[in-house]
Structure formats: C-alpha cells, structure tokens
Write a structure and sequence with these properties.
The chain is mainly alpha-helical. It contains ten helices and no strands.
C-alpha cells in the first residue's frame, strides 16, 4: 500500500466495476450477493466483484507452490510474540484494531457511533467476501499441505479466496483515514500488519490478501457514493475527533 493514491484507485476501480456490470456475463458468475449474507450500505453491489478479480492460482500451479513455500518460511521464523498478535487479530474484526495507532481511548465503549459504523462496514464485507468465497471455492493452505501448522482456528470449508479478515482490515483502514487523516500512514501500516497476520496464522495465501486489497478499493468506492455511509461517516468523524481531542475541521492531505 506504500505510496498509493487511494482516492484514484477507488474512483478507477469503482467506475470500472460499474461499467462491467452493464454487460452480460457467464451464468455461473455471481450476479448478486449471497442470500446467506446481508449487506448494509451496498444492497446489492451495483457491480460484479468477480469481474475485478482473476481466479485464484490453480492448486497445482507454480504460484501456489511458491505461496505454500512462503508459508513454511513464515512458520519457521514466526515468534511467540507474532503468534500471540496474529491470534488476537484473528478474533477481532472491527475498527478498534487500530487502537494501537490512536491510543487506549479508541474503544467501542467510548465511541458507540464509530462502533456502529464499523459494524455496518463489516456487514458489507461479510456479504461481499461470503459470495466470492463460495464462487471461487479455493481450499485453505492447510487443506492442500498437511505439513503446515496453523496457529489460528481452522475452517473446514474451502473459503480461502479472498481473505475476509483482510477485506475488513482494508475497508476499516480506508474508513479510519477519512476520520483521522493525520494518522494516514500509521493506519495503513497497521492494516498491512493486520492482513500479514493471516499468513502468520497459516490460514491464507498471499494471493488471498492481494485479492482482498483489490476488492476493498472497489467496495470503498461504492461506500463513498452512498449518502447513508457519508452521513454515518460524518457522525463518526465528529465523535472520534472529539474523543481524541482533535480539531473538528479535518485537515486537507
């Protein structure tokens, strides 16, 4: 995410996705969100997320082999501290994963409006990633290579692509940058750490994370176009900045 113009990416991907949605596609392409997942701001997505992503690398591809080797290297090098942090991140999928950036006052209890915004974004993430996971049906790394030793809870279903945690991490990071742009780089760095912990856990491939990053740009473009999201974003911005003792006027970045 280093040196990326986030706004440009959101606009380009959102526009591209919306354009593709106007054309007919193969019948097996998911045309709407899975009925088992309910979105909040995007209902349904006005574009085909599967058109943004290439299919995941084949199970017997050189890419998958290289990614499995990478996971073995990460496993051999991971420390107890890294494992503990990865396990902690595995259990938390809300905007307060960024407490380490914004301080101990950045909590759900202290910021109920921001907590509600976070929960709504998670609903959209779950709806999008749930649909894509079912469509791509990629086995998890430990389902392909039994010599791996994951340290986070296992999912028996082939739901590796894309990574839901990673999609949450990026969407919440992009949102938080809108609230506290002064901490932009620290927020994005923490998001990178959060998603890398999926590899520390041993439950995702690197390409799962990259897929989530691409989807996050597109979804966030859609969120920015939602009046409801903009309303809730404004309320959360005011609440968060008051709590952190920051000027209510957001500085231009």
């Amino acid at each position: 995410m280093r040196q990326i113009n986030l706004v440009a990416n959101w606009v380009v991907l959102f526009a591209s996705a919306s354009l593709h949605a106007q054309h007919s596609i193969a019948t097996e392409t998911p045309s709407k969100l899975s009925s088992s997942h309910t979105s909040f701001y995007i209902d349904p997505l006005p574009f085909q997320l599967s058109l943004i992503l290439s299919p995941p690398p084949a199970r017997d591809s050189d890419t998958t082999t290289a990614e499995l080797n990478e996971l073995h290297h990460i496993e051999a090098a991971r420390t107890p501290v890294q494992i503990t942090q990865a396990q902690t991140d595995d259990h938390e999928e809300d905007i307060f994963i960024f407490e380490s950036v914004l301080g101990t006052g950045f909590t759900a209890e202290a910021l109920p409006v921001t907590a509600t915004l976070s929960a709504h974004i998670r609903k959209d993430e779950s709806a999008a990633s749930g649909s894509l996971k079912k469509f791509y049906h990629r086995p998890r790394p430990y389902q392909v290579d039994s010599t791996l030793h994951p340290v986070c809870p296992l999912n028996p279903e082939p739901t590796s692509y894309p990574s839901g945690h990673s999609l949450s991490g990026y969407l919440l990071a992009f949102t938080l940058v809108q609230l506290v742009p002064e901490k932009r780089q620290q927020i994005l760095d923490r998001a990178d750490e959060y998603v890398h912990n999926r590899l520390i856990c041993g439950v995702h491939y690197a390409s799962d994370i990259e897929a989530s990053r691409s989807v996050a740009y597109a979804i966030f473009g859609s969120l920015l176009a939602s009046p409801e999201f903009q309303r809730d974003l404004g309320a959360a911005r005011e609440e968060t900045r008051r709590k952190l003792g920051l000027p209510l006027a957001v500085p231009q970045q």
